[in-house]
Amino acid sequence: MSDPLRVSGSLRNRLALILIGGAAILALFLVLLVRSYAAQIAQQGQDQVLGASVTSILDTAIIQDGQVEVDFPYSALSMLSTPSDDRVFHAIYQDDTLLSGYASLTRDATRAPALPAYATAEIMGTAVRRASASRTLIGADQRTTITVIVAQTQDALSGTLNRISRTVAGFGIGFFLLATALALWASSSTIGQLQRLTQSVTKRGPQDLRPFDKPVPTEMVPLVSSLNTLMGRLDQSLNRSEDFIAEAAHRVRTPLATVRSHAEAMLQRVGREENRATVRSMMRAIDESSRAAGQLLDHAMITFRADHLERDTFDLVELVQDLVVRLTPVAELKDVTVRLDGPEPVVISGDAILVQNAVRNILDNALKYAPGDSLVLVRVTNTPTPQVVVVDEGQGFPHAQIDTLADRFTRGDNAAGTIGSGLGLTIAQDVAEAHGGILDLSNRPEGGACVTLSF
Ligand SMILES: Nc1ncnc2c1ncn2[C@@H]1O[C@H](COP(=O)(O)OP(=O)(O)OP(=O)(O)O)[C@@H](O)[C@H]1O
Ligand SMILES: [Mg+2]
Fold first, then answer.
1. What are residue 227's DSSP bridge partners?
2. Which atom belonging to ligand 1 lies closest to the Cα atom of 427?
3. Within 10 Å of residue 412's Cβ, how many Cβ atoms?
4. Distance CA 57, CA 150 (A)
5. How far, in Å, from the CA of 364 to the mean position of ligand 1?
6. Tens digits of per-residue pLDDT, 83-116?
7. Which of 21, 57, 260, 344 lies most in the core, judged by the most C-beta atoms within 10 Å?
8. Which atom of ligand 1 is closest in space to residue 366's alpha carbon?
């Protein structure tokens, strides 16, 4: 087993987090901006009214009979009335002398602007906005400066600002929620492309090394084309090694057959018992090698055909019947009876050559490991799934090894003395898996092996 991949966080979460974070910062920035702009506009409105009030008071200032007279017109006060009944303070100075009003509204000594100047101040612990302006009066023999200061609390203004703030905050939250929904949608749909690719990789069988031909987003093209190149190379090298094994097995088998026929001829001629034993063990080694070469060749063929499975429909009963007939001579040599139980046709879709090979190996085992003068029963049924069950009357599979006997080149302890390469059950299992089925090995309670090949 390969080590589990180390995970470095989720792309979707990262993307969503960045987008949502960005939206939150943007929403906050917008709320602050709109709020400060609204505050500025509201302040300007109050300033204008204060300025108008100051100017209208200043306009009434005259010098009459050497006396300065300043009126506080009703309009100057009424224009300052607000829904929150903000308090209004005023102070009128002639030069540095307070003529009327609050002394705490001090005159700015350094400046006596003609146009109203505005500032924020504090009167009796309350924040006020004040406007001040001056006017120089020129009498017959005097020149004097009248300064008018009008101040107003800011309850109405802060009420308006609070209302605006609430509305803007509502908009900000709405914008944020909308942006969050969009961010989640955007990140899901972006990652969706990756998930589709992942799904199509996962759906493939382990043998499927075809390149991807579905459209992928531009950013994923380098990844997918590297993957395709890698799979192409893997496929090529797998095919090459299977070809190599098949070729090698084929080349070995032919000369082995020649050597065996020579050895057989030699056995006829040799008289001394020890020499005959040597030749017999030579022949056995040759049989082992040629069985191994044959099984390797079959295995390579199976692997190749399983990779490019071509399905046909055929009757499993007919196929097994055919095999049983062909194996009868071998069975008769051992006095073994092979009985087929397949009352009804079992039609399946698959590669008949592969299935034939698998069943042949299972039957071959039954004949090889069962004792002489026994019965091998082959049952072909369609319930619960199409399957071939082969039971014999031998010793059965060695218990401790039953789970590993289908591994490559694995032979059981009971196989000592019989010729074999440990590939028969591997072939049967590969064929079952290529058809989406399984190979099951078990021992019958009454003794004997039971092999089930189901599709
Ligand atoms: N019917 C059976 N009864 C008892 N043991 C069996 C039976 N079939 C298989 N086995 C055990 O399973 C092992 C693996 O079987 P497999 O067919 O893969 O290899 P093999 O028969 O040894 O060699 P070959 O590749 O030539 O068939 C055998 O060596 C044997 O120990
Ligand atoms: Mg075998």
1. none
2. 18
3. 20
4. 10
5. 9
6. 888 899 999 998 888 998 988 888 875 566 778 8
7. 57
8. 1
